[in-house]
Specification:
Radius of gyration: 16 Å
Order of helices and strands: HEHEHEHE
Number of strands: 4
Strand content: 15-25%
Helix content: 25-40%
Largest sheet: 2 strands, parallel
Distance between the termini: 16 Å
Structural class: alpha/beta
């Protein structure tokens, strides 16, 4: 996480870090400077607290809404080896930069 934050060239551009799972450990160490010098948000995601049947039903409904044109989804994908270009990219209204691993 520190390496990503330090390598950024646009520190005011929002960055969401989504933590999924616990294989890397239960805790992190991150300096206050890293948080103060970046537009940075840490989020968590874990399915363990939610009924998987509910998730499956909601994801199915979401996919159907997207397929029917009920939601505009315009990802702008970048492969991981173009991460610098992804950071420099300015999203158009309704667009979302996505880095592919």
């Amino acid at each position: 996480m520190r390496a990503v934050l330090e390598a950024r060239t646009q520190h005011t551009r929002p960055l969401d870090w989504v933590q999924v799972g616990g294989m890397g450990g239960d805790s992190i160490t991150l300096s206050g400077h890293a948080l103060r010098s970046n537009a940075f948000r840490i989020l968590g995601s874990g399915f363990g607290q939610v009924d998987m049947q509910v998730i499956q039903r909601e994801l199915t409904e979401l996919a159907a809404a997207v397929a029917a044109g009920g939601m505009a989804v315009r990802p702008h994908p970048f492969p991981l080896d173009q991460v610098e270009a992804a950071w420099a990219h300015k999203d158009a209204p309704g667009e979302r930069t996505v880095i592919l691993l």
